[in-house]
Write a structure and sequence with these properties.
Shape: extended
Number of strands: 0
Radius of gyration: 15 Å
Number of helices: 1
Helix content: 10-25%
Largest sheet: none
Structural class: mainly alpha
Distance between the termini: 44 Å
Order of helices and strands: H
Protein backbone atom coordinates (compact mmCIF):
# COMPACT_ATOMS: atom_id res chain seq x y z
CA UNK A 1 0.00 0.00 0.00
CA UNK A 2 1.22 3.50 -0.77
CA UNK A 3 -0.08 6.52 1.12
CA UNK A 4 0.94 10.02 0.12
CA UNK A 5 0.47 13.16 2.17
CA UNK A 6 0.66 16.66 0.78
CA UNK A 7 0.27 20.11 2.23
CA UNK A 8 1.91 23.43 2.75
CA UNK A 9 5.03 23.94 4.83
CA UNK A 10 4.27 23.39 8.50
CA UNK A 11 0.91 21.73 7.87
CA UNK A 12 1.85 18.62 9.87
CA UNK A 13 2.50 16.05 7.14
CA UNK A 14 5.57 14.64 8.90
CA UNK A 15 3.78 14.45 12.24
CA UNK A 16 0.88 12.59 10.65
CA UNK A 17 3.18 10.27 8.67
CA UNK A 18 5.13 9.30 11.79
CA UNK A 19 1.91 8.69 13.73
CA UNK A 20 0.49 6.53 10.95
CA UNK A 21 3.72 4.55 10.67
CA UNK A 22 3.72 3.94 14.43
CA UNK A 23 0.24 2.45 14.32
CA UNK A 24 0.65 0.38 11.14
CA UNK A 25 -0.29 -3.25 11.60
CA UNK A 26 2.08 -4.47 8.89
CA UNK A 27 5.83 -4.10 8.71
CA UNK A 28 8.02 -2.74 7.26
CA UNK A 29 6.84 0.85 7.03
CA UNK A 30 8.92 3.55 5.34
CA UNK A 31 8.43 7.29 5.61
CA UNK A 32 10.02 9.15 2.70
CA UNK A 33 10.37 12.91 2.91
CA UNK A 34 10.16 15.08 -0.19
CA UNK A 35 13.06 17.17 1.09
CA UNK A 36 15.27 14.08 0.87
CA UNK A 37 15.06 14.36 -2.90
CA UNK A 38 15.77 18.08 -3.25
CA UNK A 39 18.95 19.18 -5.00
CA UNK A 40 20.03 22.82 -4.87
CA UNK A 41 22.59 22.64 -7.65
CA UNK A 42 22.38 23.89 -11.27
CA UNK A 43 22.91 20.40 -12.70
CA UNK A 44 19.91 19.13 -10.71
CA UNK A 45 17.50 21.96 -11.44
CA UNK A 46 18.61 24.38 -8.74
CA UNK A 47 18.80 28.11 -9.36
CA UNK A 48 22.18 29.47 -10.41
CA UNK A 49 22.95 32.42 -8.12
CA UNK A 50 25.87 33.60 -10.32
Amino acid sequence: MLVTLTGGAGAGETTLAVALAATASRAPVRVLHGDDYYFDTPEHGGVDAG
